[in-house]
Amino acid sequence: MRLARCFVITALAAGLLSPATAAQAEPSRTTQKTSAITLISGDKVVVDERGELVRVEGRPGVQFAQYVQNDHQYVVPADAIDAVSQDRVDKRFFDITSLHAYGYTDDKIDRIPLLNNGFRAAGAVPKKDAAQQWTARRTSALRAEKLWLDGKSQISLNESVPMVGAPAAWQSGFDGTGVTVAVLDTGYDQKHPELAGVVSVSKDFTPSGIQDDIGHGTHVAATVAGRGGQYVGVAKGASLAVGRVCEASYCFDSAVIAGMEWAAREVKAKVVNMSLGGDQSDGSDPLSRKVDELTAETGALFVVAAGNAGTFRKVSSPAVADSALAVANLTKHGAVEEMSSRGPRLGDHAVKPDIAAPGTDIVAARAENTLWEHVVDDLHARLTGTSMAAPHVAGAAAVLAQRNPSWTAAELKAHLMATVKPVADSPVSVGTGLLDVGRAVTQQVRASTGSLSFGLLEWPHTRTFTKTITYSNAGAEPVSLTVQHNLGADFAVPSSVTVPPKGSVGVDVVLDPSKGNGTFFGHVKASGAGVELTTSVGAYVQEERHALTLSMIGRDGKPVPNEFAVVVNMTTKEASVLSIGPDGTGSARLPVADYAVLSRIDELTPNYDWFVPVAATDVAGRVSLAADVSVTLDARQGKQIGVELPERDSEVWYRDAQLRVPFAPGKISGVASIIDGRVPLYGLSFGAPLPELTYDSGLKGGQPLVSVPGGFPVRYYESSRYLPPGEHRLDVAERGSDVRGKLALVRTAGEDVYAVAQAMKDAGAVAVLWAGPVPFAYGEQTAIPVIAAAEHHVAVTPAKLTLRAIAGSPVSYTLFLQNKGALPFGVKKFRHSELAQVKARYHTSGGDGSVNQRNNPVVNGAIGVTLDERLSAPAERTEYFTPGTWFQEGFDGRAFGGGDDPITTSWAHVVPVTFQAGGRYERTNLRAVTSPRLGGASLVPWADGGGVERAGDLITTRISPFGGSGWVENWRQTGGGYVELLRDGVTLGFSDVRQGSFHAPARDGRYKLVLDASRESLALSTNVKTTWEFSASADGKLPLLEVGYSVPLDLRNSWKAGAPMPVKFTATRQAGKATVRSLQAYASFDDGVTWTPVKSIVPPGGKAGGFVSLRVVAADADGNTVDQTVLRAYRLR
User: Fold this and answer.
1) What is the value of pTM for the model shown?
2) 199: part of which helix (H) or strand (E)?
3) Closest to 387 (Cα-Cα) out of 214, 544, 128, 561
4) What is the residue-wise DSSP string for 301-317?
């Protein structure tokens, strides 16, 4: 067990569907649970429940480097690559694997926490403002001081204490008396008898209080210095200073750093135990640097758990700090525990961990009402992890400090490491070996260091390297030692050495890298006359490497500066980013191998930094690197990659293109970007064939929402308000002149669109004609319409301009192509016959609004490119899709509230659907009645479809409280509610309205499940209450009945007041077939005050502007029942 730390160059970059004819098959459907993560740059990525990348939703026109490094997925926008590579921005901001693990998804936090000089910054970045603030930081703050993510750390005796030699040390008179050990953890149980009188001072650095409500800190503290009867800590005479720096399972860096400074500077602890850690690191992260800083300043020895990631991750921060004593976990049989993190240190291959101690099945103090799954008795719990190993070593350090009070932290560390018991394993698993504090307090010969790290030795290798271990003898007699090593032929040490009394002698460890390359780890052991000394040694002798130099030239023949390429080793699949400098060239030294080189050459508008290209060239090639190689990527040699839509008056709005080399599921190395559909796109291939290449290209298109009849092309700014439908003949006036009632022409090189639009509105302008490069959008709408045009089209200010506006394109194209092994040169001409046609209808709750439609092709079980569109609603239109499976989500809630109601929390998640070429389909989106759904997609689509089920003694509920009828199977809303489960009239518990779990031992009984959910911010289905009664003794899906509604409403989800309405109600069972014994429906025109029975017709009633509520009571032949009420199910017009 261990406290995990959230601490981040570089490769990437709701409706009903039914066949229109009986011959067409029902669309196939699956589900997927996803979460969004907003990056510090304002870009978003979507990941699945395992944290694997699903897609990137970037700012328009921005390229992304996607790559896997040390099993972590990174997504780095092009405008962050230099800042990351120059160490001005913490790369963890773009480490998708870590951000997901830390819980920094958008459904959990709405701000991105920052660190400033090691303390949490007051200016945490609101995610909604991230894009805007990133722009400002890129030009100012990032130049001054490194921007760090405030990450987290994760909380990671009776047999183990003798195992480390503590009783022998006690017999020698040393038990830590007079030494203070600080324990930075989850606090401690202030009433625990084994810690009575042990804690001399404490302080809380969290909002939770010093009392340990987790149990981790109490267990650790007792392992250091507990004074129980059977279970005694290693340093039973030491005093403890307890700092609480961790909450439920995580510890913010800022809290940990504050606790470290308190322990070392204020308390002046000789030893500080930190059974916590974050991600693997090279030692440059804030916690590791703070360990080294405080050790040098105060002399405190920081004993840190190595981590519990097994062989999958390296030793974590802050255990990787040079001065930290990093502790691995051994079983009680002396073998390394499987989940103990391995070394070497990331980056320089320094030897880590440093030492090992027992950390498996450790019984120690249990805080009251904690660790129920690990209980031994009321006062004790059994835990496993490097968290349990570290306090053994911290206690030993206190014992040794009592023995040698003048020793520095480095001396304590070196002696504990050198005097270990041998363990038959590598230093990168167990350090020098098993802690032996008994030997440490009695052996008079010591070593100057516990480890020697030669680090990375770069190729070519032309000389030998020497490092020295100094042995010192505090005794009165000389000591002769035999010196041996197990490092291989590249290393040499003298066979023996004599250490004089009260003197020292050096032993040179010589490495000749010319004898072989690779990673070398082993031990140098000196023994004789009862003396045993062990030193860990490590080196990384670099393999043969050569320079790969790339030069980029644009279609204008000029060098293209400040770009990047993703370079993927096709043998190891490791990816890196090669940055192109201001002169258009970049170079990197890489191992001998074949490499995939993926890039995009964007030619930008002069003097403009928004990554809006005037032309783009996708690059894919293969390089065989056996000597220095230079490659010129000349965009002038590129060939067109184009598309042509079936309708002449339609246009491509934008493209989402990705070049990638698959690495593993969810892990991609490649380049991705979204570009304006009017930007010419080319492709450039070079070198040998690259069969591993996948080129994904998605596009959205349709009729332009705004145009100049017979004139030049224009387009709405992405977040622009729209002009009313129709033709608008407008006078044109330059900004600065009288723009009242006119189209304001703004010539600009990248000002803030929102500020300009507001200023022009204040000046009386009807709309803005934006002449110049268009910045990315922040999400909110502009004050007045903003229409973009190319600068050269309005070089001379027109006196008047006619703009034709439509509310929405009557046709849309959502198309996806995938090419394997090569770029898709040429122009792809689409025909309607090869596409699927969908007659789509978009409903609202009465007013005018808009929906954001998001489409993703599903390829080989994975989500592909993202194709978004904002359209006005209500609407009917024809949509075309390329054949295949598509996943849709993201219907903006503004379509529900009516008018300008800015509801944006209501989203629809839908299951994938498979389209056939030439198929004709119908889809109804966001149609009432919305009511609880037991299957399909839930709050976030569940892999098993959700519902209510039993597994043993546990009943789980996964219910979509406001599900749609048909294809749109979930609307995510804000609002309140609860779920209650009862058996035989006795309440078993309550849960969240969307998901919960209940302890309900399997036995016969009458179960009742009550769901009550409200969403007052939306116009329809403002409250739904459902009561199910059923039996629940068997495992699996439980026999709950689901009510279905079929009502012929118009696009505003309304029916004519005073007119009878045909209606159909159904009841189906989520588990097995149900024979419905009875079904009775009711309608109410006064929000449920009075009810009228309904069969197949809702009788006339109510007034225009009012609402109709519905209630259904049904039962099946097995006695299962449902009683469901939906207030304001639809409106009357």
Assistant:
1) 0.69
2) strand 199-204
3) 214
4) EEEEE--S-GGGSBPBT
Task: Assess whether 285 carries a catalytic annotation.
Answer: no
Task: Find where tokens 């322990």 sit.
Answer: 263
Q: What confidence tens digit (pLDDT) does each residue in 1079-1088 have?
A: 999 999 999 9
Q: Nearest-5° angle of CA 809, CA 814, CA 815?
A: 140
Encoding tokens for residue 336?
């390394």
Give yes or no for a contact between 453 and 349, defined as CB atoms under 8 angstroms apart: yes
- Over 70: is that where the pLDDT of 967 sits? no
Helical H runs in 425-478? 427-430, 437-442
Place of tokens 């965009």: 635
Please name the residues in contact with 229: beta carbons below 8 A apart, sequence gap of 6 or more: none
**Where in the chain are the domains?**
7-110, 155-439, 444-541, 545-699, 706-805, 831-925, 931-1132
Q: Are 651 and 703 in contact (CB under 8 A)?
A: yes
Res 38: pLDDT = 94
Alpha helices in 186-298 (DSSP H): 216-225, 253-261, 286-298
Rounded to the nearest 5 percent, the helix, strand and coil shares of the chain are 15, 45, 40
- Give the DSSP letter of residue 262: I
Coil, strand or helix at 1113: strand
Would you call the peptide bond into 874 cis, given omega within 30 degrees of 0 as the criterion?
yes
CATH code of domain 545-699: 2.60.40.1120
Based on the residue annotation, tell me whether 216 is a catalytic residue of this protein.
Answer: yes
- Choosing from 95, 175, 185, 602, which is the catalytic residue? 185
Asked if omega into 353 is within 30° of 0 (cis), the reply is yes
Closest alpha carbon to 537 in 496, 507, 498: 507
Task: Identify the CA nearest to 718 among candidates 769, 785, 658.
Answer: 785
- Going by pLDDT thresholds of 50, 70 and 90, the confidence category of residue 26 is very low
In angstroms, the CA 93 to CA 79 distance is 13
pLDDT, tens only, 353-377: 999 999 988 999 999 988 887 888 8
- 292: annotated active-site residue: no
pLDDT at 177: 97
Residues 60 and 674: beta-carbon distance below 8 Å: yes
**């969403």: which residue's tokens?**
1015
More confident residue, 434 or 609: 434
Task: State the catalytic residue, choosing from 340, 387, 453, 673.
Answer: 387
Catalytic residue chosen out of the listed positions 72, 100, 192, 216: 216
Architecture of the domain defined by 831-925: Sandwich (2.60)
The one-letter amino acid at 631:
V
pLDDT of residue 604: 67
- Who's near 25: CB < 8 A, 6+ residues apart? 19, 916
Q: Taking residues 1035-1062, what's their average pLDDT?
A: 93
Calpha distance 744→59 (Å, rounded): 26
Nearest in space to 1011 (alpha carbons), one of 992, 1031, 985, 987: 992
155-439 belongs to CATH 3.40.390.10: no
Euclidean distance between the first and final Cα of the chain, in Å?
Answer: 62
Coil, helix or strand at residue 8: coil
Tokens of 522: 């082993």
Percent of the chain's residues with pLDDT above 70 = 87
Amino acid making up residue 770: W
Q: Using CB atoms within 10 Å of the CB of residue 748, give its burial: 0 to 12 exposed, 13 to 18 middle, 19+ buried.
A: middle
Please check whether the two domains, 155-439 and 545-699, share a CATH topology: no
Alpha carbon distance 57, 869 (integer Å): 12
Is 444-541 CATH 2.60.40.10? Answer: yes
Question: CA-to-CA distance for 929 and 927, rounded, in angstroms?
Answer: 6
Chain centroid to Cα 1125, Å, comes to: 39
pLDDT in tens, 229-257: 788 999 999 999 999 999 876 888 999 99
Tell me: cis bond preceding 344? Omega within 30 of 0 counts.
yes
Query: Which of the four CATH numbers 1.10.3720.10, 3.50.30.30, 3.30.70.1250, 1.10.10.10 does domain 706-805 have?
Result: 3.50.30.30
